[in-house]
């Protein structure tokens, strides 16, 4: 096919193919007959080893890991996202997104539009306690499998796939569920992005191993201990667990730096100015360090005349020359009587970052505990308890505040009760930011015996969406002086609007219908255009300009024209007048008996260099 005679690919990226292209570009010597020679690549990258050590490698493996990787690499072919304006709030204005669907498929659908654009990911996945919903992903039929496993096509409508401890593959099922999702999530993080993952003792060790593999050991930032309980449970036989963990990884730890916890009065009150230094308030810091550096062991004479040296086994943190420079600049403090051991003056005005570097133990007094979170959510929902163990808003808000900028995208693809959405709105209210959230939640059905079901909430997303509405209204009323984005666009995972070719000879006659229309019969042009836009890399919050059956999408560095109606040979000239970016893609539905028009448009592109520079054509 010519460059502008490409067929539109109704899939997300094939990650193996993309990776192979990058490897071939970096190491052309490992390409043989157009394929990557993995043995040659391993020989190139591996250090020289003795023969008997060549096959001895550190590995963390389990049954199904190979298939989990395969699932992560496979593109999404049979799914799309359908807009649900009825369930949304402020559809036309909001930049927030709520998606109902299997997060594996959703993460794949997000790859083009959100690759390297998410600053912070927070997830609270199933802890694998023996009662959690953990279903087995299928490679060949991801969407049908999703419908079955979530009970959407089951006669009774019940979810029955909790991961019981009696299951012989208890840990492997959980790992196979988590691995591809984390692998896809990494692609979405910005280079200076960070992921926070809540977990408890059941899978903490396994989670850290797969995160080390996916994100890299060097990008591990911390294992935070969250004090989630404030009182012991005396019925416990040995220990009453009072904490959970939050694993924190960076996309690239070498360029990541926390913004710090906002300074409060308590922290600032530690600074004073007893010598009336014109540079402002300061506090003194220990000048000695250990282990000792021999060249930094030297005597210091205090203003009172006393001679002091660093304690045994330690040295001064400054060389003798640097000490003299700081002494001359009035940055060394000997106490109010001039007789104390020298200490370094640290000025509040010279702090490199606005906040305090967080420690790895987060106390419930600072970020809340489980019972407090349950009570606050219950109060928000008019006294009804719909969730047993929601996370505190302040806990997730700290994660958001530590690493996000004012206009960052925050993603949670195990969003549950949507605490993350409320945390983002709260943080924007506090610092005037414009952060956007993307929530993804499996549409698990509520139990028919539950309070939620009796209150007409049939799925978890229905409760969560109502929680966001109420929280947003409450926060906006509290901060009436600023305009907050408390809305959200709802999308639902559905089967693709584009027909899929089936090689089954029994369905040949049915497949011939694709020659008449590439789309499913019950889909609308709005839905078809949205799918094409998503799979072309347009963000979910982009609002198209619509002219009949033709759509014009623009977001960030992507521009796509979706032409589903009639057109003539003037089409490209007309689109060029509407174009807003240097380069755009036009995805055009071939008209019945329109081969001559198509041919003329392709020839026009060849003959007019400017059009060829401005557009690439893809055909439906």
UniProtKB/TrEMBL annotation:
<keyword id="KW-0680">Restriction system</keyword>
<dbReference type="GO" id="GO:0003677">
    <property type="term" value="F:DNA binding"/>
</dbReference>
<protein>
    <recommendedName>
        <fullName>DNA methylase N-4/N-6 domain-containing protein</fullName>
    </recommendedName>
</protein>
<keyword id="KW-0489">Methyltransferase</keyword>
<dbReference type="InterPro" id="IPR002941">
    <property type="entry name" value="DNA_methylase_N4/N6"/>
</dbReference>
<dbReference type="GO" id="GO:0008170">
    <property type="term" value="F:N-methyltransferase activity"/>
</dbReference>
<feature type="domain" description="DNA methylase N-4/N-6">
    <location>
        <begin position="118"/>
        <end position="439"/>
    </location>
</feature>
<dbReference type="GO" id="GO:0009307">
    <property type="term" value="P:DNA restriction-modification system"/>
</dbReference>
<dbReference type="InterPro" id="IPR002052">
    <property type="entry name" value="DNA_methylase_N6_adenine_CS"/>
</dbReference>
<comment type="similarity">
    <text>Belongs to the N(4)/N(6)-methyltransferase family.</text>
</comment>
<dbReference type="Pfam" id="PF01555">
    <property type="entry name" value="N6_N4_Mtase"/>
</dbReference>
<dbReference type="InterPro" id="IPR002295">
    <property type="entry name" value="N4/N6-MTase_EcoPI_Mod-like"/>
</dbReference>
<dbReference type="InterPro" id="IPR029063">
    <property type="entry name" value="SAM-dependent_MTases_sf"/>
</dbReference>
<keyword id="KW-0949">S-adenosyl-L-methionine</keyword>
<dbReference type="GO" id="GO:0032259">
    <property type="term" value="P:methylation"/>
</dbReference>
<feature type="region of interest" description="Disordered">
    <location>
        <begin position="261"/>
        <end position="281"/>
    </location>
</feature>
<keyword id="KW-0808">Transferase</keyword>
């Amino acid at each position: 096919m010519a460059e502008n005679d490409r067929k539109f690919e109704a899939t997300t990226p094939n990650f193996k193919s993309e990776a192979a292209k990058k490897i071939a570009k970096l190491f052309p010597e490992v390409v043989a007959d157009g394929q990557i020679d993995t043995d040659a690549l391993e020989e190139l990258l591996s250090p020289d080893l003795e023969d008997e050590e060549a096959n001895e490698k550190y590995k963390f493996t389990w049954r199904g890991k190979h298939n989990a990787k395969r699932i992560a690499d496979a593109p999404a072919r049979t799914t799309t996202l359908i807009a649900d304006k009825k369930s949304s709030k402020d559809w036309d204005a909001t930049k927030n997104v709520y998606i109902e669907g299997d997060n594996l498929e959703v993460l794949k659908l997000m790859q083009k539009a959100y690759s390297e654009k998410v600053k912070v990911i927070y997830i609270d996945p199933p802890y694998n306690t023996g009662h959690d919903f953990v279903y087995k992903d299928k490679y060949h039929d991801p969407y049908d499998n999703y419908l079955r496993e979530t009970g959407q096509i089951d006669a009774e409508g019940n979810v029955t796939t909790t991961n019981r401890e009696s299951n012989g593959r208890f840990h492997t099922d959980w790992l196979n569920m988590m691995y591809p999702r984390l692998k896809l999530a990494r692609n979405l993080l910005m280079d200076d992005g960070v992921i926070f993952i809540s977990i408890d003792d059941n899978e903490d060790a396994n989670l850290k191993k797969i995160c080390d593999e996916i994100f890299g050991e060097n990008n591990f930032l911390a294992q935070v201990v969250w004090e989630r309980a404030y009182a012991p449970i005396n019925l416990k036989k040995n220990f009453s667990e009072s904490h959970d963990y939050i694993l924190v990884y960076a996309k690239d730890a070498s360029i990541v730096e926390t913004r710090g916890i906002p300074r409060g009065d308590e922290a600032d009150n530690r600074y004073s100015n007893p010598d009336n230094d014109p540079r402002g308030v300061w506090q003194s810091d220990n000048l000695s360090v250990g282990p000792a550096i021999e060249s930094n062991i030297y005597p210091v004479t205090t203003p009172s005349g006393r001679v002091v040296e660093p304690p045994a086994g330690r040295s001064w943190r400054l060389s003798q020359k640097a000490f003299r420079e700081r002494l001359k600049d009035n940055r060394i403090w000997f106490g109010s009587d001039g007789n104390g051991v020298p200490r370094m003056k640290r000025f509040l005005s010279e702090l490199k970052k606005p906040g305090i570097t967080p420690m790895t133990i987060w106390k419930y007094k600072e970020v809340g505990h489980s019972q407090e979170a349950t009570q606050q959510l219950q109060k928000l929902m008019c006294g009804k308890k719909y969730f047993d163990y929601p996370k505190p808003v302040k806990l997730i808000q700290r994660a958001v505040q530590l690493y996000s900028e004012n206009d960052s995208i925050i993603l949670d693809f195990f969003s549950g009760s949507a605490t993350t959405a409320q945390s983002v709105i709260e943080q924007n209210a506090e610092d005037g930011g414009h952060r956007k959230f993307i929530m993804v939640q499996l549409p698990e059905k509520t139990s028919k015996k539950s309070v939620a079901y009796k209150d007409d909430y049939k799925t978890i997303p229905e409760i969560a969406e109502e929680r966001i509405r109420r929280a947003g209204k409450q926060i906006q009323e509290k901060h009436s002086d600023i305009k907050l984005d408390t809305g959200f666009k709802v999308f639902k995972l559905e089967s693709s609007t584009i027909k899929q070719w089936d090689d089954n000879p029994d369905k040949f006659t049915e497949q011939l219908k694709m020659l008449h229309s590439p789309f499913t019969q019950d889909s609308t042009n709005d839905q078809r255009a949205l799918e094409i836009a998503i799979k072309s890399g347009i963000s979910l919050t982009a609002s198209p300009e619509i002219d009949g059956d033709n759509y014009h999408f623009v977001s960030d560095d992507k521009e796509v024209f979706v032409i589903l109606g009639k057109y003539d040979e003037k089409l490209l000239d007309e689109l060029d007048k509407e174009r807003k970016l240097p380069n755009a893609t036009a995805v055009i539905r071939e008209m019945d008996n329109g081969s001559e028009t198509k041919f003329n448009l392709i020839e026009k592109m060849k003959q007019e260099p400017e059009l060829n520079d401005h557009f690439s054509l893809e055909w439906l």
